[in-house]
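Q: For a teaching session next week I want to show students how multiple molecules come together into a single three-dimensional assembly. I've collected the sequence lines for a complex. Could you give me the predicted C-alpha cells for the whole thing so I can convert them for display?
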Amino acid sequence: MNTVARLLAQGPDALANYLLLAGVLFALGIFAMVSRRNAVGILMGVELVLNAAGINFVAFARFNGHQLDGQVFALFIIVLAAAEAAVALALVLAVFQTHRSIELDELDEMRL
Amino acid sequence: MSPAMLLFWFVVIVIVASAALVVLSRNILHAAFSLCLCFTGVAGIYLFLHADFVAAVQLIVYVGGILVLVLFAVMFSTHTQEGSVEPRRGRLALGAGLLVGALAFVSVVLLVKNLRAPINANDTVAQARAEERNLARLEKPAQGEEPGSDEEIAASKARLEGLQKQSEYRRTVGVDPENPIAERRVGLGHLFMGRYILPFEVASVLILAALVGAVVIVRKETRA
Amino acid sequence: MLGVLDPFSTEYAVLTWAPAAILFLPLLAFVVMLFAGKRLDKGADYFGAQLQGWETAQRDPFVTSVPWMTMGGVSLGMGFLVDNLSSFMCIVVTGLATLVLVFSIFYMHGDTMYRRYFAYMCFFCFAMLGIVLSNNLLMTFVFWELVGLGSYFLIGFWFYKPPVSKDHHYQELKARYATGIDERFLSPAYAQRKAFVMNRVGDFGFLSGIMIFLYVMLEAGGYNNGPLDFTNLYKAIVDQGAFDTVMLWGLSGKTLLTVAGILTFMGAIGKSAQFPLHTWLPDAMQGPTTGSSIIHAATMVAAGVYMVARIHPLLNEGSLFFVAMIGGITAFLAATMAMVQWDLKAVLAYSTISQLGYMMIGLGAGAYGAGVAHLYTHAIFKCMLFLCAGSVIHACHHLQDMNRMGGLRKKLPVTFIATSFGVLAIIGFPFFSGFYSKDAILAGSLATAIHHGGLHWLPYILGQVTAALTTFYMCRLLFWTFFGEPRDRQVYEHAHEDALFKRVGAPVLMILALFCFGFWWGGHLVGGDIGAVPGLSVEAKELNHHGELEPGRKGWVDATMTSPVALSAESYVAQEGHEAAAHHVHVHHVAHKWATILSLIGVALGVLLAAMLYCWKVLDPGRLVRAFPMSLGVGYEMASQLWFFDRLYQDGVVPVTKVVCRIFYAFDFGVIDQILVDGWAYFVRALARVARDIDNWFVDRCVDLFGWTTWFAGAMTRTVQAGKIQYYVCVTFGAVAVVVLVLMMV
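A: Of course. Below is the structure for the complete assembly, covering every listed component.
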C-alpha cells in the first residue's frame, strides 16, 4: 500500500506510473485481440498494444536522461501502425466483399 | 495535489476507461469512438513526457487518420443497422482473453517492480546539480560537518566538469526541459536526418507499399 | 607494325567502333528484315558502312580484340584487323553489296519471297564482313562457315522448285547443247546441299591447318593471349621461326609448315571453288542471279583468295607452289569448260572459277599484290557481268540459252554497254582494270618461272593460255548474245529494258562500268611490286640510272602487306649480293615486258577467233570440231563433259561413300547396337529387376513409414494452423507472459 500511495503522490514524475498505464493498455489490447470476434475489433486491440509500446518508449527516454531516440521510435511505431491499419482494413474490406462477413469464426476455409 | 497531478490522473483514468470500453463494448461503432478518446488521452500522456511533437503526430495520425479508416471499415462492413453489434463472445474466448490479459498485466507489473537500474542514471543535468551540491558541501561544510579533503574536492570538481560537458552535449542534441521547445524539435529532426535516416527512408517505402497494397487488395476485380 | 594511338582519342574510338559498326549493321538489317519484315532502305545502311570503310582506310594497320573464350591459360579472341587489305575489301564488299541490293529491287521485283531475299543478303554481308575484318584464324573460320550458310540460303532460295529433269519450264528454256549441269539430281535444294558438302571437304582441311598453327603457336610459347591472331602468327612464324623447333607426326620445321599451309589452303579450295572441289559453283547458279553476282562471283568465292592473302606470310615456298599449281590447273580447266557452255550464267560461273584460279596463281607465284588486286578488279567486273546477265535473263523472261538470243544490243543498250565494258575488263584489254591485275599476275609468275625453272613454268604457261581462252569465251558470249541476227524472233520481240530497270538497274550498271576503266585506279592497286619470287620477295625498289636500288612505286594494296614476307632491299643485297639483287630486278622487268606482249597477242587472237566464229560467221564451230576430231573434238567432248568431274563424284565418289557407309552401318547395327548396346541393356534390365524387388519390398515400405508418420503428425497438429489468429495471439502472449513470470520468480 505504501508503494501505491507513493506512486499516486508522484503522479507524472514517476516512471512506474507510465509503465503501469502502458501495461494496462497492453493487457486490454491483448484481451481484445484474443476475445473479440470482429476483425475490426481485433485491429483495435492491436492499436491499443501499439500505443502501449509507444508510451513505454517515450517514457523510458524521458526518464533516461531526456533522450530523443525514444520519441523517434514512437514516431516509427505510429508510422507502422498507419501502414498496418491501411493494409489490415483493406483486407477486412476484401474479406467482407467475398464473404459478406468479418466475423473471424466464420472464416474457416483454410481449416481442413 | 497540484493541478498538474490532477490532470495527469484524470488523463490516466480517461485512457483506461475508454480502453476498457473499446475492449468490452459489443457495438463496434461505440468501440471505435471510445478508441478515439483513448488515443487523445495517450497524446496527453506524451505531453506529460515532454514529447510534444509525438503528441501532435499522435493526434494527427491516429485520431485523424487511422481512426477515420477504422470508422470507414466499420461502416462499409456492416449489412444492417444491428450489424455493427457483435454477437456475444464465447465463454472460451472470454476466459482465454481474461487469462492471457491478466497474465500480461501481472508480468508487466512484476517487471516494473523489478526495475533495478537507477532510472535517472543518465540524467546528467540532475547529476550535475547533485554534484554541485556535493562540492558546495565539501568546500563549505554546514555546521558540525568535516570539510572534504583536497583530493575529494579535486575529484568532485573533475566529475562536475565532465558532467557539465555531457549536459552541454545533451542540450545540443537531446531533450532538456530547460531548453525551448523549438530546439527540442530541432534535435528530433537531426536524429531523423542523421542517425535514423535509413529507417526513416525504409518507413517511407513501407508506407508507399502499404498504400499500393491496400489499393490492390480492395480494388474490385474488373477482369472478366 | 601497329601505329601507337592514344586510347582516348577520337581516332582510336573511330578505329575501334567503325569495324564493329560495319560488321553489325548488316546483321541488324538481317534481323530487322527477318522479324520486322518491313521494307527498309538498306542502301542507307550500306552507304554509311562504306563511308566508314573509307574512314578506316589509308591508315596504319589497326588491331582491336575482345576475349572470346579462355581455356586454361590460352585466350582466344574476337577482334578486328584493319589494314589496307581488309579496308579495301570492306569497301568492295559494302560497295558491291549496296549496288547489288539496289539492282535487286529491279531484279527481284514481284518475287513471292522478296523480303526474305534481302534478309539473306544482309546476313551474307554480315558474315562476309566478319571474314574481312577478323583478326584471327579462328574467327575467320567461324565467319567462313557463316558465309557458307548465307550461300546455302541463297542457292536454295527457290527451294520449292523440282529437280530440273522434271521441270518442264526449265526444259523448255534450258540451253540446248552442253549445259554443264548434271540434270539427274539438280534442283536448288540439291545444289545448296552439294555446295555445303563440298565446302565441308575443304573446311576439314582448313580446320586441321588451324589446329596445326595453334599447336605450333602454343609450343612456341609466349602467345597464350591470342595464339591465332594474324599479327602473332606473322611475328612468331615469320620473324621468330616458330616452326623451326617443333616436331609433329614426325614432320619437322619446313615440311610441317608446308603441310599446315596446304591444309589451310584446302579451305580456300572449297570456298573459292578450286580444282578439284570446283563442281559446286556452277550448280550454285540455281539461286537468284543477283545473289550469284555478289556471292558466287564477287565476294564469297573470293573469300578463299582473301584468306590466302591473309595467311600469305605464313606460306612457305612449298605451299605457295601448291597454291600456284592448283590455281593454274583450275584456271585452265574452268576456262575450257566455259568455252563450251551455252547457258549464259554457266559461262560466267566457269569464268569465275577460272579467274579465281588466276588469283591463286598470283598469290602462289609471289605476285602477291597482283593477286589481291585481281581479286578487287574481278569482284567489280564479274559482279557487273552477272548483273548484266540478270538483266538479259530478266528481259528474255528467264531464258538463259544464248542460242536463242542474239542481236540484243539494240534492245538492251545499257546492258550491252555494261557487258562490253565487263568483257573488255576481264580479257585484259589495255586501260581496263583486268589488264593491270592480270598482267601483273602473269608477269609475277613468269618471273618466278624464270627464277626457279622446272615445274614452276606450269602455272605461268597455264595462265598465259587461259588468258587467250578467257578472251575467246568472253567474246563468244558477247557476240553470240548481243551481235548478229536474232535467232529467236519471239524472244527478241519481247525483250526490253523496262521502267524499273531504267530507274534502279541502269544507274548501278553505269557506276560499275565506270569502275571497269582501270587506268584511273587499277594501276594504283598493283604498283611496282617486284617481289615476284616466293621466299625472295623484296620490297618494291626500282633500279635507277646507276643501277642502284631505290624505293619504287608501291601499289596501294601491298603498301603494308608485303612487309611480313618481303626482305628489305638492303638485307636482300646483303644476303645475295648486289649483283643478284640487280639481276632479280632485271628478270622481273623482262618478265613484265614479255608477259604483257604475250597476253596482248593472246587477247588479239581470242577476239579474232571469237569474232570469226560468232560474229562474222566465216567459220562454223561445228565444222571446225569435226575437221580436227583428235584435238578439238576430244577437247570439246572433255570440256562439255566437264572433264568428267561431276560424273566422277556422282558415279564414283558417291557410290564408294555409300558402300563405306553401308559397312559402317552394318558394323554399327550388328556390333555396336546389337552386342554392345543391347547386351548392356539386357544386363541392365536384369539388374533392374533385382533393384525393383529391393525397391518394392524394402525402400517403398520405408518411404511409406515416413509418409505415414508425417500424415499422423499432420493430423495431430493441423488444427493449430488453420488461420485462427486469436489462437496464435493467445499462445504467443501467453508464452511470453509465462516466460516473464518464471524469470521473475527465479
